[in-house]
Design brief:
- By secondary structure, the chain is an all-alpha fold.
- 80% of the residues lie in helices and 0% in strands.
- Helix 1 runs antiparallel to helix 4 and helix 9 packs antiparallel against helix 11.
- The chain is globular.
- The protein starts with a helix and ends in a 9-residue tail after the last helix.
- The C terminus is likely disordered.
Amino acid sequence: MAPQRKLRLKMGFKLLLGAGVVCLLVVAGKLFNVPELLQNALLWVQNLGPAGPIAFVAIYVLATVFFIPGSLLTLGGGVLFGVVFGSIYVFVAALLGSTLAFLVGRYLARGWVSKRIQSNEKFQAIDTAVAREGFKIVLLTRLSPIFPFNLLNYAFGVTQVSLKDYMLGAIGMLPGTLTYVYIGSLAGSLAMLGASNQSSNPQAATIQWIIRIVGFLATVAVTAYVTRIAKKALAESVSSEGSPHVTTHHS
């Protein structure tokens, strides 16, 4: 009993720690003006010269891990580095940050989740099915704007999706990255980020509508796809549980 009690305490501590971190981040977001902090951080990056890209990536990674929305940073990448290099830096930073969050979710919460579902074969079947189709699911959810980026990083960590599929599925972030970096480049300066005339730019408006359509289609696709594989996994689980063991007698 002692080892089991120790394991439960360990899992409980991890869960409590994770909940505490989330609460702390929510309170911090209320107390501090996050957009203003990010704006100041971008101004600091702008004055760093050649070291700017490294600092930008580091800030973006930290923002991703700590649930800070990265839209302003992505727009800022377009202002500071232009469309090409801005897209590269943002994508690399988002990939690094999301992977770090994924690993935190996996090693902080995966053990606890596994303990909860190990006695339920249906949930195990669904989890395994999602793991088999991991790349497609990650790709589609990255294309869909309905799934919160920062939360999704941790959520995938508690599934059986492989790290390889998770990272490859990150290519689904490219359309949104290119769009926001391009829109940011149209602003011309950090002071103009979020200005009303930015959203009135015909080119920006057209691209935003294209991305919205792609995002809507991806949302429909991932919903239908996950529903289908979940039903299939459940059917397989029920079939395996209900199938009788037939014995044949040879005369």
